[in-house]
Amino acid sequence: MLHWVDPNRGYAAFRRWSLVAAAALAFALPATASDWSREVLYFVLVDRFADGDSTNNRGVDRRNPGGWHGGDLKGLTQQLDALKDLGVTALWINPMQLQQARGMPAQGAGVGSFTHEGFHGYWIADFEAMDPHFGSVADLKALVDEGRKRGIKVLLDVVLNHAGYTSSYSARKTSGGESWLRVGEGNCEVDPITCAVGGLPDFKTELPEVREHLIGANIALARKAGVAGFRIDTYKHVASDFWLEHRKRTRAELGDDFFLLAEVWGGTAQSLDGLFARDEVDSGFDFSFKGGCEAWVQGRGRTVAYGAYLRSRHGVRRGYLMAHYLSTHDEPMMLGTLGGDRARFRICAALQMSSLGMPVIYYGEEVARGGHEWPMNRNDMPWGERDILPGKGVARDEAMRDFYKTLIRLRKQHPALTQGDYTLLTQPQDAALAFARRDAASGDQVVVVANRDDQAVAIDVAAPPNWPAQPALDRLSGETVNAAAGRIKLEMAPKSVRIITPASN
Ligand SMILES: [Ca+2]
Fold first, then answer.
1. 380 C-alpha to center of ligand 1: Å?
2. 141 CA to centre of ligand 1 in angstroms
C-alpha cells in the first residue's frame, strides 16, 4: 500500500502514525492493559486432579475425604491437551507453597470425622518453599510453558492474609521485637482486617517486614514460573493500602499485564467498584451468579427480576471484569443443590457462558462431577475408564462435556457474548427468560432463551432492533427458529435453553 512513496519514508510515516494511534488507543483503553474478558477459566485443586508422579505421594490416603489424594503439577500438565480440547484458555490453580505438616481434626456432613490436610493449599507453613506434594518450581514452570504452547494461561492462587494453623511464623518477630501474627481470633463482622478467618493465624500485614515477606515470596515464585496472574484469597481481610502497594509491586516486577483477580467474599458489580476505582485489581468474583441461577431455575422469583439482575451485571466499571462460577471449593456444588437435575444445570451453564464476565469452571463440573457439600465438593476429578488417579473409575458424563465444548465454542465465536450489551426481551407476564446480547463494533448479535418450567412454553418476544429477517438458528440444537416480522416465536421444551443467532452469523 505504500509502494508510491520512498519505502523508508513510508515506513517512518507508518511508524509515526502507529505511535500516535497506539497512544490514542492507550488513552482510550481503561487503566489496565490486561484484558481477560474473553478467557474461560478452569479452577483446579491440583491434589484432586491427576497424579503424574507417585514419588511425591507421602501420606496419601485416598479414602480420607480430607486427605492428600496424590494429584500434582506433572499430572495436570499431562492433561493440558484435554483441557485445550474442552476450550479453556486459562487455569486457576490452588496455592502451591509448603503446607503445615499435620492435619486438623474435622467433621463433615455425611462423612463423619476425618483428618483435614492442607491438600487445598490454603494452610501455608513456608511461603518460600513449594509443597512437594504438588511438585517443584520447575514443575510449575513446565505447566506454564506447556500451557502457553496451547494458548492456556496459568493464574496462581495466593494467600496474603494468614498462615497455616501451625507454622514457624508463630515464633517469628520483627527486628523491633513484634510478633508477625496477631493473637486471638477477633471478630470478622466488626473488623475483617484483624480477625482470624476460620481461626487461621492473621498476619500483621501493616508491618513492613511481614509485608515484604509475603509480597516478595509470591512475586519471586511468579517470576520463576512465569505465571500470568494471581487469584488473591481472602481479599477483604487485608487493608487497601497493602493492595495498592501489591498492585504497584506486581506491575513493576511482573509486568503491566500481570492480572489480579480478587476473592472479595460477597462481591457484586456494586461492591467491587471501590477496588476497581482505586485500580487495586483487574477483576473480582461475582458471588451472586451461582445463587441467582440456582434460585431462578428452581422456580423461585420472577423471571423478569432475574433478567434484571443479569442486566445489572453490566454495571461493572469499564475495563474491569467480574468472574462468575456455578460452584467452587467454598460453596456447595450447583448440580448437587439442584438435586442432580442435569437439565436445569445445563440452563445455568448456558447462561454462565452467554453472560458478561469471565466464566469459571470448577474442575469436573463439565462432566457432572458428584459431591455437594464440603468436603465432598473437593472430591476427585472423575476420569471414567481412563487410567488416571485419583479419580480412575469414577463415572463421568461425556454428553455434558460435549455441551460445555459447544457453549465455549459459541462464546469464542460470538463477541456479543463476551463484550456485547444486554437487552431483556422478557415481559413481566412471561414465564421464560429471553435476552439479547449485541456487540456494536462487529454487529454480532445473539438471543438467549431459557425455560425453567417442567412444562413446554410458547415464546413470542420482540426481536431486538437490527435483528435481520429469517432465518435464525438455535446453535445448541441446530434447529431453525421462526424470527419473521420482528418477532421471535418458538416452542421451548421443558427445562431447556437455546442460543439463537441469525443464520448468517
Ligand atoms: Ca503425586
1. 13
2. 17
Pairing verdict, β 41-44 and 496-502: unpaired
Burial bucket for residue 18 (CB in 10 Å: 0-12, 13-18, 19+): exposed
**CATH 2.60.40.1180 applies to domain 422-502:** yes
CA 138 to ligand 1 center in whole angstroms: 15
CA quadruple 96, 97, 103, 104: dihedral sign: negative
- Written as one letter, the residue type at 116 is H
Report how far ligand 1's centroid is from the alpha carbon of 197 (Å).
29
Whether the pLDDT of residue 231 is over 70: the answer is yes
Q: What is the model's pTM? A: 0.93
Q: What is the pLDDT of residue 270?
A: 92
Q: Who surrounds ion ligand 1 at CB < 5 A?
A: 51, 53, 56-57, 70, 72
From the CA of 389, how far away is ligand 1's center (Å)?
A: 9
* Phi, psi (degrees; rounded to nearest 5) at 423: -125, 125
Give how far Cα 478 sits from Cα of 456, 473, 501, Å.
Answer: 19, 6, 11
396 Cα to the center of ligand 1, angstroms:
22
CA of 105 to the centre of ligand 1 (A): 23
Q: How remote is the CA of residue 134 from the centroid of ligand 1, in Å?
A: 7
Half-sphere exposure of 490 (CA within 13 A, CB side): 28
| β-sheet bridge partners, residue 232 | 158, 262
488 C-alpha to ligand 1 centroid (Å): 53
**Residue 49 CA, ligand 1 centroid: distance in Å:** 10
Compute the distance from residue 51 Cα to the ligand 1 centre, in Å. Answer: 5
Q: Which CATH superfamily is domain 34-413 in?
A: Glycosidases (3.20.20.80)
Query: What amino acid occupies position 482?
Result: N
pLDDT, tens digit, 9 for 90 and up, residues 24-56: 343 434 434 479 999 999 999 999 999 999 999
| Ligand 1 centroid distance, CA of 162 (Å) | 26
DSSP 357-418: SEEEEETTGGGT----STTGGG-PPP-TTSS-SSSTT----HHHHHHHHHHHHHHHH-HHHH
User: Which tens digits make up the pLDDT trace of 62-105?
Assistant: 999 999 999 999 999 999 999 999 999 999 999 999 999 999 99
Sequence ranges of the domains in the chain: 1-30, 34-413, 422-502
State which amino acid sits at residue 78: Q
Q: What are the cell numbers at 435?
A: 435476552
Average pLDDT over residues 179-205: 94
